[in-house]
Structures are given as structure tokens and as C-alpha cells.
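The protein record passed on for reference:
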Amino acid sequence: NTAMAAQMTDAHRRFLQVLMSKGITEGSEAKKLHHHCCETDKVYYAHDKLDDFISTINRHLQPLFMQIRKGMSEEDGRAYYAVVNLAETEVTKMASDYTEIELELFRKTMDLIILSENGFASSTDILNLADKLKTKKMKKKEAEQVLKVFVEDKWLSEKNGEYTLHTRCIIEMEQYILSNYQDVAMKCNICHSLAVQSQVCESCGIGMHLPCVRKYFKAQTEPRCPQCNEFWSCDIP
């Protein structure tokens, strides 16, 4: 009965509200939330229908230029859901929260991350940018503070002094990155979404997310590139 399914219920509204307040939610959390919302608002619940439930919300969000998007953590391959504003590119969305100089630091950090071999930029390299900003120079102490805020706001994530793009950032900015970094940004050969942290084939240059590499080669006796069939020379994670 699809006519019924298309109705936006209190359960859908509750789900959307929670998701918006979090910005991003891990897949198993979203499943629990789906169950909780349906139970609370006495709405029919089917455990395997989360994606249908979300597409009902998305149909109602369309006129508002918003969408709940599903993405993947580049670390461990887990699913995530984020609410994305389609009317604004990431830069305008961020512009309401950050100053011009902070945005410049973010854009320069993004350049470093996307142009890097492995999808990470070291804090040393990022802090060296801080006193070369066009808007005005930024002291290292200031820059460290700004980076901390970018991590708290889930635009960047940090591991042992290395920064990469947060899953939320990748879900939000995929289109922006693919169109602004056409020559370097690549899609994963396996799941076809943007790959920032990736391994690249030395022969033909295709890239794959680390979790996708892991899954793909699990079934293979020897790792060969899915594109050119040459031996995969990177270490399988």
C-alpha cells in the first residue's frame, strides 16, 4: 500500500527532528531511532524499511531543498545518515557559522587533504598555512583553536595530529568536492562515492576506500585491481 507509505507521520517528523539536531547519525543508531519513533507515535514499524521511511521524509523535504543522505565512514565502512541542505553549497552553509579567515583556513586544509596521497594533512602542514592566509595572517595558537572547532562541528576529524574530512563533511560536500577538484577527487571503484582516504592502483590509477578494499579482496586469492587486473601493490588493511 504505497499511498499510505507516502504519508508523513509524527514518527517521521520526530525522526527528522532528532537527525537535524545531531547533524549526523550512525546507521545502527538510525535503526534504533526509527524503531523508537514508530513505537512512540504508534506508527506501523518494519525493521527492514528504514530506507523507505527515510525516502518518505525526503519527498516532503524536497520543496525545502533538503535531503537525508546516506554515506559511509571511510575508517570502518559503517553507514551514516546526515541531513543535507541542497540549496546551499557547503561554503555558504559554513559561511553563516565561521568568519572569512576561518573559512579560508578550512578551504586550504581541504586542499591539503584532497591533494594528499592518503587523504590526511598533518597539523604541522596546516599550521604552516595559517600565516600565509590572504584574508589576514592567523597565529598558530588561533589556528589550533579553529581546527578544534572544525573537529567539534564535524567538518574535520583528527587522529594523532593528522586531519581528514569528517564523514558528515563528505556526505554534505561530495558534489562540491567532485566539481571543485575535478582533476584529483576520485570516486571509489567499488561503491562509486567520493573517496578521500583511499588506496590507488599503481598501474591504472583507480582508487578504492579502505573498507571497500578490505571487502573486495577478502574473496580473492590474490589481490588484483578490479579495473586493470594488475597486482594490487598496496598493503591490504
Remarks:
- The mean pLDDT is 90.
- Residues 20 and 83 are 6 Å apart (CA to CA).
